[in-house]
Amino acid sequence: MHRETAFIGVDLGTSTQRKSTGLAYLVEKNGRPWIESPPMHIISDDLQIHSYIKQIAGEFSFSIIAIDAPLSLPDHGTMRECEIRLRKHGIACYPSGAEWVSKWVDKGIELKTWAEDELGARVIEVYPYAARIALDIGAGVKKKTNKGRRVIQDGLLGFVGGLDKFAKDKLLSDDELDAILSAYVAYCEGKGIAVKIEGEDGVIYLPVKRRDHTIDEYASADNYFPD
């Protein structure tokens, strides 16, 4: 018997020479997001990524897959409207139309197409750094450092049940942490509480904002970033 919904996070990299892609999935347990298997950190080989997603999705009736990579190209110039909006509010992001990120963008679009066509999954674009700002998890830390990863990992413990089992004696990689964050945004979207930062040429999904150490603001896209 298939379970209801899997919330899968993909921190998509491009290197097939080193581990550069993080993978994780969440389920709902007792009314909250729950991680039941350790995240994975693999080389960015399409067959390996597809195999992981297909195996997880096959256990559920439906999957929402959140990919940390641009899933569309700008209508003109090097930046989409959603990226311009993020930058306007001080959140740095890569210009999806720049030549130097084209391999990453193409890989993301190809993965989205495959997941929708082969699995019938719902696929959304996410941005873990912006998600951390919204959730107030290590907004000012560097995720490539051990100290930064520790701050992010400890912060995620308050949002994702079951994570302490896999993080108790281990410091997860930045790709694994971003995959968990991505899966968390997929969960928010599944519950109808994600926020869309959108434009004519793309949409980035973020979690609801955190205020006073609890999530109590179901912000609309119009007031997510105050002027």
Keywords:
single chain, alpha+beta, Nucleotidyltransferase, domain 5, two-stranded antiparallel ribbon, 7 helices, globular
Specify the overall morphology. Answer: globular
Low-confidence stretches: 212-220
- Number of DSSP helices? 7
**CATH C-level label:** Alpha Beta
Tell how many strands the DSSP assignment holds: 10
Describe this structure in words.
The chain has helices spanning 46-57, 81-88, 102-119, 128-135, 146-156, 163-167, 174-190; strands at 3-11, 19-29, 32-34, 40-43, 60-67, 122-125, 195-199, 202-206, 209-211, 214-217. The longest helix is centred in the middle third of the chain and has 18 residues, at 102-119. The chain is α+β, with helices and mostly antiparallel strands. β7 (195-199) and β8 form a beta hairpin. The chain has a single domain (3-217), classed as Nucleotidyltransferase, domain 5 (2-Layer Sandwich). It is built from seven helices and ten strands. Helix content is 35%, strand content 25%. Strands 1, 2, 3, 4, 5 and 6 form a six-stranded mixed beta sheet that branches. A two-stranded antiparallel sheet has the order 7-8. It is globular, with a radius of gyration of 16 Å.
Map the helices and strands.
Elements: E1 3-11, E2 19-29, E3 32-34, E4 40-43, H1 46-57, E5 60-67, H2 81-88, H3 102-119, E6 122-125, H4 128-135, H5 146-156, H6 163-167, H7 174-190, E7 195-199, E8 202-206, E9 209-211, E10 214-217
Parallel strand pairs: 1-5, 5-6
Antiparallel strand pairs: 1-2, 2-3, 2-4, 7-8, 9-10
